[in-house]
Design a protein that fits this description.
Layout lengths: L20 H11 L5 E2 L14 H9 L14 H13 L10 E4 L1 H13 L5 E6 L3 H9 L3 E6 L10 H6 L5 E7 L11 H14 L2 E5 L23 E7 L12 E7 L5 H13 L5 H4 L2 H6 L4 H4 L5 H15 L3 E3 L7 E6 L9 H12 L1 E2 L1 E2 L10 E5 L4 H15 L4
Parallel strand pairs: 1-11, 3-4, 3-5, 5-6, 6-7
Antiparallel strand pairs: 2-8, 7-8, 9-10, 10-13, 12-13
Helix pairs in contact: 1-13, 4-5, 4-8, 12-14
Length: about 400
């Protein structure tokens, strides 16, 4: 027998459990005929949310122009629309030359870190994080240094603790706001302190703001770039979440702040963008319509809107359960739920998720998948309708009651 072909050792510290072993097991169960309620991924289209019709029409009407490669940074109308959206937020220094369109934010995270990092450079990443950030730092030769967003502080970071992690090798700070997986929305004071820290230590700010318009109740989303005029700031967003167009694979990255310091960095991004020729062209034709048209997300996140009501159902069901607790998510489309302390030492997050899948056919993401130092949380998406969420929590409670 010929020897097996080993995977690259670069993958040894890379994980993405959101689509890992539990998701593979769910797929096996589905092939055997079981109906799985999959709450591991925030994928609006799977839960009946539609991309706005105007965006679909814009893409269809321009298909004839979408057949050739476009500029490596993206088509001009899409980049111009992103500039105008940034200017509406008070970020005046941006031009189309500072905008990159990518195959989703995921590709742009990879390109931005590849253009920035030398082997051994450090990046400050929140814990819990969206694990693509940790993976992309590692795959591009960097070292992840986690700053704690503690549950007892409602998952808001402690800026003094972040600064204590800064070393001569630190190059950047990742800020995920509104946050995935916790649903935390950072206040202006915290964001201003993070921007000031970056300016003082000459660090790059990497602002993942893909859920920017998805906030609830009195939460205020503050674009980090509006507070970071003296630092180099990269803002990441896209069509996937707010515009319910995950499959279009359209994201953007915008450089702002001290652009003179960023020139070589921008040139590096241009080179890497050219090497992959361009991103998906048909989906780019939906950007101008999305950003300049009616913002239907506003109705969904207000009381009575589907996203708001589903989130409220999660909050209410957790409050009624003796087995669970949660900090009410103020943004995004997730809840980061804690198992009661009495399960400590008996049931960790992975075992809980596995049993919930095998016996109750509900798929969730263990909290430690998001690079936490604790194993008593799990993440669900709040996208299902309220009836489905009631079924989910009935099943969760019935499982946990077996341990009482």
């Amino acid at each position: 027998m010929e020897p097996a072909i080993p995977a690259s050792t670069a993958l040894e510290n890379v994980k993405y459990e959101i689509r890992g072993q539990l998701a593979h097991r769910a797929y096996e169960l589905e092939k055997r005929g079981y109906e799985i309620i999959s709450l591991n991924i925030g994928n609006p289209g799977l839960f009946g949310f539609r991309t706005p019709e105007t965006m679909r029409l814009a893409m269809i009407e321009n298909l004839g122009q979408a057949e050739p490669y476009c500029h490596q940074k993206g088509i001009f109308p899409a980049r111009e629309a992103v500039v105008m959206a940034q200017q509406d937020r008070g970020i005046q220094s941006v031009s189309v030359e500072e905008v990159f369109i990518g195959n989703g934010v995921s590709e742009l995270i990879d390109l931005s870190l590849r253009a920035l990092l030398n082997p051994g450079d450090e990046v400050l990443v929140p814990s819990p994080d969206y694990p693509l950030w940790s993976a992309a730092v590692t795959l591009n030769g960097g070292v992840v240094r986690y700053y704690d967003c503690a549950p007892e502080n409602r998952f808001i970071p402690d800026v003094a603790a972040i600064e204590a992690l800064v070393s001569p090798r630190t190059r950047a700070i990742v800020v995920i706001n509104p946050n995935n997986p916790t649903g935390a929305v950072y206040d202006r004071e915290t964001l201003a302190a993070m921007a000031e820290l970056a300016e003082r230590h000459q660090l790059v700010l990497l602002a993942d703001e893909i859920y920017d318009r998805m906030v609830y109740d009195r939460a205020e989303f503050v674009p980090l770039a509006t507070l970071a005029e003296e630092a180099v700031c990269l803002t990441f967003s896209g069509l996937s979440k707010v515009y319910r167009a995950c499959g279009y694979r359209v994201g953007w990255c915008v450089f702002s702040g001290d652009l003179d310091r960023a020139r070589d960095y921008i040139h590096g991004m241009e080179l890497l963008s050219a090497l992959r020729l361009c991103s998906n062209v048909p989906g780019q034709w939906a950007v101008q319509t999305a950003l300049g048209g009616f913002q239907s997300i506003a109705d969904l996140v207000q009381p009575g809107g589907r996203l708001y009501q589903s989130r409220q159902t999660v909050i209410d069901r957790v409050a009624a359960s003796p087995n669970l607790s949660v900090h009410a998510p103020m943004g995004a489309m997730y809840a980061f739920i804690k198992l009661d302390d009495r399960y400590a030492g008996e049931l960790d997050d992975h075992e809980f998720a596995l049993q919930l899948l095998e016996s109750r056919h509900v798929l969730v993401a263990p909290g430690s998948s998001f690079n936490t130092g604790y194993t008593d949380h799990f993440r669900i998406t709040t996208l299902p309708d309220t009836d489905t969420l009631d079924v989910v929590f009935d099943r969760i409670d019935s499982l946990l009651e077996q341990y009482d």
